[in-house]
Write a structure and sequence with these properties.
Radius of gyration: 20 Å
Number of domains: 1
Largest sheet: 5 strands, antiparallel
Number of strands: 7
CATH topology: Heat Shock Protein 90
Strand order of the largest sheet: 3-4-5-7-6
Helix content: 25-40%
Shape: globular
CATH architecture: 2-Layer Sandwich
Strand content: 25-35%
Oligomer: single chain
Number of helices: 4
Amino acid sequence: MRGSGYEDRCSRVRPVRLPRETRMTEYLDGAVIPTGFDVPVEPLRRAAHYSGEPGCIAQARSFASLFLDQLRTEWCATIGPRADGAVLLVVSELVTNADRHSRGPYILELEGTGSSVVVTVYDSSGAVPERFPRDPERVGRHGLEIVHALVETVVVERVPVGKRVRAVVPLTEE
């Protein structure tokens, strides 16, 4: 996104005073406080459904890339190349696992703020993915190992129709 101008737009964003009749009113401990501008308070949320047909994994990565662009624009989120790559890799790994093991459709949900992106994948398989011990000699089965290295937390839960895998990717550079 460098050179697109979004950095300049975000650094120049200033609160705009609205006419008195369109201002929001906040209630804090019973006090009425007139305010003059709206700021994003809800995370940006998007979801996509995939059938498991060829090309779905690439579509999911593209969906995540567009989501990150939207997060930069709407939240003025600073997302460095490492965090950008981490989100796309986590999406790719989790969607690949769902595609290989569920034998059915799956859902990708993304939820983001200026500090993190939550990647959630629902699929129809009730089998909980296994995280293998680190072994550079092993061929394959490194997906969850990669995901765990990139995220703050990973939670796997059984749901009535299968399972949900939720990973929180930090956007701040360490």
